[in-house]
Amino acid sequence: MSEKNLSSISDSEWEVMRIVWTLGETNTKQILNELQAKKDWIDSTIKTLIRRLVQKGWLNAKQDGRRYIYTATVSQTEMMYNEAKTLLNRMCDMHKGEVILKLLKDSPVSKGDLIKMKKEISQKEKTAPEMVPCNCLKTGSTIC
Amino acid sequence: MSEKNLSSISDSEWEVMRIVWTLGETNTKQILNELQAKKDWIDSTIKTLIRRLVQKGWLNAKQDGRRYIYTATVSQTEMMYNEAKTLLNRMCDMHKGEVILKLLKDSPVSKGDLIKMKKEISQKEKTAPEMVPCNCLKTGSTIC
DNA sequence: ATTTTATGTTTACAAATGTAAACTAAAAGT
DNA sequence: ACTTTTAGTTTACATTTGTAAACATAAAAT
Lengths: 144, 144
Fold this sequence. Notes:
Two copies of one chain form a homodimer. Chain A is mostly helical and 144 residues long. The first copy, chain A, has helices at residues 11-23, 28-36, 43-56, 76-88, 96-105, 111-125; strands at 59-64, 67-72. In chain A, strands 1-2 form a two-stranded antiparallel sheet. Chains A and B meet through helix 1, helix 4, helix 5 and helix 6 of A and helix 1, helix 4, helix 5 and helix 6 of B. The first copy, chain A, binds a DNA duplex (30 and 30 nucleotides) through helix 1 and helix 3.
């Protein structure tokens, strides 16, 4: 589906992306402005982050004279979803539900999203198991 | 609450923790056995990971003769929850709901957890906003 | 007692990340 | 035209992570 090599994105790089996602089309100056309101990173540091993001393919740099105009190549939601899925996949299937429940508990969620969640839950209830089996050991196990 | 310095845990280290969580009290040999069924890491590599986990305080090493018996210092769910929360906090509040919904969609969840989720959703519906405001820029924004 | 095996410790080394200094060249100000 | 500012590029350097080689030593096997 996607043609870019999914090299992952670091913490600091993510901060830059947030600015770009919010501003849409933007440039170095704007990124510096907004980011320096939150972080005390000097220009040079932020420029390095931008460069690495372009290299990694997360930012598109369209030349405009001798400047660049930056845009994100994937949406924030897509990116976060991928990262979160990868993270969650580190863990035993058995406990994923618990974690998602806890995340739900402490995140602000809109009415619309809550409704979608209810639908999804009804859907899942039709086939949900009493307990999701552990998939941690080669042998299989229920104690996980 | 917790007295340990929360240095974070890496991908490879996580694989070791999974084994320990599943086995409960365990030792190097068992970890090597189980882990080498999944990964082609040589002994030395895994021993390094164990050592780093002990250093970071994620594994407890109780001496037993010249061996050690290892146990995890936090549960898998706690650990994942913390990592996931940290990750999610990188992102704009506005879209967290979407991401959680997508995670829910592609994770196996037990009947019990689904019921808990429904309860939580009913709870949240009482005060949920039409739309969660963006918190990405110093100025505030609705376009995020 | 000597060899082999198991377990643990020390050292190593490349890639990624956080963080920045130095330098270059164009643009804008005077 | 000369100076200052701005945007971009190159180089740097410590820490963390992935991955392992080398080495030490106790325990087990012969």
